[in-house]
Please model this.
Amino acid sequence: MAKKSKTLPRVLVVDDEVDLAELLELTLLKMGLDVEKANGVVAAKALIDSQYFDLCLSDMRMPDGEGLDLVRHIQAKGLDLPIAVITAYGSTENAVAALKAGAFDYLAKPVALEQLRALVKSALKIEATPAVKAARSDRPLLGESPALQQVLVLIEKLARNQAPVYVTGESGSGKERAARAIHASSNRAEKPFVAVNCGAIPENLMESEFFGYRKGAFTGAMEDRDGFFQAAHGGTLFLDEVADLPLPMQVKLLRAIQERKVRKVGGVHEEDVDVRIISATHQNLARCVEGGRFRQDLYYRLNVIELKMPALREMGKDVLTIAQFLVEDIAARHGMPTMIFTVAAKQALCRYDFPGNVRELENLLERAVALADGDQIDAEALQLHHCHSPSDKAEAVAANLGDTYPLQDYLDRVEKAAILAALDKTGFNRTQAAKLLGVTFRSLRYRLERLSITPESEA
Model:
């Protein structure tokens, strides 16, 4: 064995299978790394407690314990040591259990050396992050409330492993922003972050959009094209509104995630892809599984670690911090001087429930900045008196119910009014309106056609 240098990154290989341990050692030595071997869990714990390592690779099953024991040992001691486990082929449950326990990543047997090298290179780029590097994301997650601080602590932990993350929360609560924060604070920060709205892609184009296609694969395929997976290679793929994926596409997505390979439409050979999956939806995915609309195996594959984004009404006075940041951002974009809120405006913001969360707050502040006189925004400019709580709306509906119209006509009128209000707020941006309404783009498009709503309908 080559003489070890203290300046080389150190990797601990834990495996009772001599042949596999030697293969891993040889591969790592060729990468210019310093390698130490342990033939079981007990020996590995002793080495971890007495020496410094930059990475640990451990088999899952050994005579004196499991790789999970090492994962928990490292977590309990608070060591800055990423660990990847090697699982039996097809043992998805073990891989998921390891990621949930805090493992950095996993490899399936038989170990593919290219995947091993990619994992090691990725792991050794990790740097200690005492706090979430919010400044690296497009817009920071602001606030001091306990609800948000819990989110920031979890984001910091999630940034240090490769586990799939499932982000939940109401529409407009910042799920994509949280995903970007995880990516920006991870060792993948220099690679692409690709966000995909699963509800906005026509079903007949999904496979080609996700996996790409070869020239001539179908009419209009004039050249080879990469899909979302290839575009996110080395980085993060964010699947927003993942509950909207049709069942046939869910099968293909599950295979791509498990095998870490994709085949372009019209292609023969599979391509290796290295992406971290973060998914999100405002729907209850567990209920979608119960209703047969979402595959249970894909659900467990995506929902390894759940991150719940708090609603704005749960964040107390953070609404004022966020509002001031947004106003300064809006003013800067429009070349206007910075504005401040009057006392009455602050009180109005704190009283309002914000059913549309931060997205609704941003929309109303865009309008408020345009309506404000001078450098102050008062309560009148916010126009929150035109907005009502859910209970107010229910009472209003009850008060107007009558036998003048058939029920379906009445419901259509209510639905049309809600859609027009959302379109008005978003400047007839249908994608943003769908998010504000809490429905998919496809669902909104169907409603627009059924209710004959066009841009001229606003007039």
